[in-house]
Amino acid sequence: MEILAFGVTADEKPLLERAFAGEHEVRCLDVFLSEDTAPIAAGYEIVSSSVNADLGARVLNTLSAGGTKMIAQRSTGFNNIDLDVARRLNMTVGRVSYYSPYAVAEFAWTLAMAVNRKVVRAAIRTRDFDFRLNGLMGRDFHGRTAGILGTGKIGEAFARIAHGFGMGLLGWDLAPNPACLELGMTYVDKEELLARSDLISLHVPLLESTHHLIDAAALKAMRDDAILVNSSRGGLIDTAALVDELRAGRFTGIGLDVYEAEAGVFFLDKSLEAVEDDTLARLVTFPHVVMTSHQAYYTADAVGQIIETTVRNVADYLAGRRSENTLVPSP
């Protein structure tokens, strides 16, 4: 059987082809699954999608009409998939429920360190042979407080690194993580965490209940010199409200690997095009904002695990099995 995979990067392609070798052929496309590209999948029973794919009602109906019966999403998040429509169309949907939490946690710390120590600005200056230190002063993380919103596997990994730095730990979640409690984490309500933390990192999924978890009120509750990092989902932050606070001169630094309107922008080369998103255009101009293009997961270890799970999800579908990765089972 030939599988059609959308949104495959150049680094990912040989790994994906190698993983399916001997079992199935895989056709890799660098374009993302959308209303415009969905017709390409006509005749493919199994389609693999990436995190920024559009799997809304229109796309799912197009795929179903073309004969697609299984969606193998190569990500943990699935807020881009209309699961109710998939059920109505009798389409099986699988995702990757787990991959290396260290990839994301370590990258969140990369962003935190970059904004704290002004690494991007310093590197640009050095390239221009400007070796002054003016404006590059950071702070020790040792002895300060890290507030972690979401203390699952990734939040726990982030907390372990913070503990290694000698930071105090505050957590917010539906239930305490015993491993985090052993590290000395104190669980508090969101408002207290925001008010007391020097560094705030987001590690919760994007759900209806967490959309704009960091809204205008939450931003105002944060300390003026706080650092905010988001390597989870862009919709957790009200970006327009964040820009307003940045314009007011608040926060030591903001590290963002995700953006709430990133679909159709991230993973693409937009360097020769006019920027239509005024909020994004303004956001990247602030000198104390470091923004990357949803790459926190992008290590050989994590991507390898994602691909291995995708191969298993396909095998489970063909065998009529369910697993913890099954979002919509076979009819």
From TrEMBL:
Domain of life: Bacteria
Molecular function GO terms recorded: D-lactate dehydrogenase (NAD+) activity; NAD binding
Listed EC numbers: 1.1.1.28
Record keywords: NAD, Oxidoreductase
Name of protein: D-lactate dehydrogenase
Domain (D-isomer specific 2-hydroxyacid dehydrogenase catalytic) ranges: 9-326
Keyword set includes DNA repair: no
Family: Belongs to the D-isomer specific 2-hydroxyacid dehydrogenase family.
Protein biosynthesis is among the record's keywords: no
Enzyme superclass (EC): oxidoreductase
Annotated D-isomer specific 2-hydroxyacid dehydrogenase NAD-binding domain residues: 110-296
Alphabetical list of InterPro entries matching this protein: D-isomer_2_OHA_DH_cat_dom, D-isomer_DH_CS, D-isomer_DH_CS1, D-isomer_DH_NAD-bd, D-LDH-like, NAD(P)-bd_dom_sf
Originating gene: ldhA
